[in-house]
Amino acid sequence: MSSTTTTTAPAPASTLNLQTSTGRKMTFDGTDPVYGDWRDDLLRDGYAVIKGAVPRDRAEGYADKMFALLESFGLGYDRHDPSTVHPDKLPVVNEKGMLLNYAAAHEDFVWGVRGEPGVYEAFEKVYDTKDLLVSFDAINYGFANREHLPENKPWPHQDQDPEKPGFRCLQGLVNLQPSGPDDGGLIVCKGGHQLSEQFHRDMADEERIPAWTPEWYGFTERGMKYLADAGLEWIKPTADPGDLIVWDSRTPHYNVPTRTKQDRLAIYTCYMPVACATQEDLLRKKDAYERRVGTTHWPNARHTGWNEAKRDGKPDYVVRTRPLNDAVLSERVFKLTGIPYIREDVQIPIAGM
Fold first, then answer.
1. Domain 38-341 maps to which CATH number in 3.90.1010.20, 2.60.120.620, 3.30.70.120, 1.20.1250.20?
2. Quick one: where's region Disordered (predicted)?
3. How far apart (Å, rounded) are the C-alpha atoms in residues 154 and 92?
4. On the CB side of 116, how many CA atoms lie within 13 Å of its CA?
5. 353 pLDDT band (50/70/90 cuts)?
6. Alpha carbon distance 238, 180 (integer Å)
7. What integer is the mean pLDDT of 240-267?
8. How confident is the model over 29-49, as pLDDT tens digits?
9. Whether pLDDT at 162 is above 90
């Protein structure tokens, strides 16, 4: 099944120093200059599409491996037969299209996307540092045939605690299939990030939709009316295979099912500066990496997942705790795990270690 992961040996932690800032970090507070590229779109709209972050031929190769991963479970799924898009023939994929378990977050093609220079260099531009952590986030299958699948109902939300305003996180996904205006994929409330702080002041009396983390805020009907009354528009960004879509975590968003016969394939990729993580965070992240479990989109790994899926409320009869194809990481990509930044003198117990 899987091979042993090997990496280029990192430098000793005691010798690693964070890169010196050049003073070009984006602030999102109204003082940013005009950049003359996608960063201007991000500041204005709360999202941006970065064309060709992954060369198209490689994007198509990653898409092929995404389909092959589903077929590898031997449950009957066949990418060429839409009738096999059925819960009994698939590993557990939630109604939003996310494959969260089975060590899928650590498949070689997922790490391949995370290690694409055009992807991580976009985040380097935003944060003005090469010292980044990457999330061990989910991969997404938006099947065109949903006859046997649960309905993907709208779930407008922002991935940021209203009690912690200001820019804190830039989310991203790499698109691997054509995504036109009627195809499935991300939908965003254009400009919603700029209204976020005022929104939460005005809506402070609104009972929150229950969530497992304060870093998720769901928009109620009243909240959606507030956004509409403010003149904000929901936009479905279009993207080609290999395009990177990024959005401010304050921007309201969710994903929509396709209205065509085009499947949607996406790999979520989010990076943030190592400086935003504590040593305890890095140890937790190291534990997640070694156990090949996922995290949320937050790269500091405040929440980690598990590889044992639930099917109809019971432990899945399909068990996979290591990737089908484990990744071989270069030194540059291995640094994104955060492990090389752990100080040698730090020993903090982490659950599961």
1. 2.60.120.620
2. 1-25
3. 20
4. 26
5. very low
6. 5
7. 97
8. 999 999 999 999 999 999 999
9. yes
Amino acid at 209: I
At 323, the amino acid letter reads P
Are 185 and 239 in contact by the 8 Å Cβ rule? The answer is yes
C-beta of residue 352 within 8 angstroms of C-beta of residue 291? yes
Domain coordinates of the chain in residue numbers?
A: 38-341
CA 175/CA 137 separation, integer angstroms: 14
Q: Which two tokens stand for residue 258?
A: 């396709």
- Residue 328 has which token pair? 């071989």
The DSSP output letter for 274 is G
Query: What's the one-letter identity of residue 154?
Result: P
Predicted structure pTM score: 0.92
DSSP string, 44-109: HHSEEEETTSS-HHHHHHHHHHHHHHHHHT-SS--TT-GGG-SGGGSS---TTSEE-STTGGGBHH
Lowest-confidence segment of 8-12, 22-26, 177-181, 323-327 by average pLDDT: 8-12
Show Cβ contacts of residue 5 under 8 Å, excluding neighbours closer than 6 positions. Answer: 326, 327, 328, 329
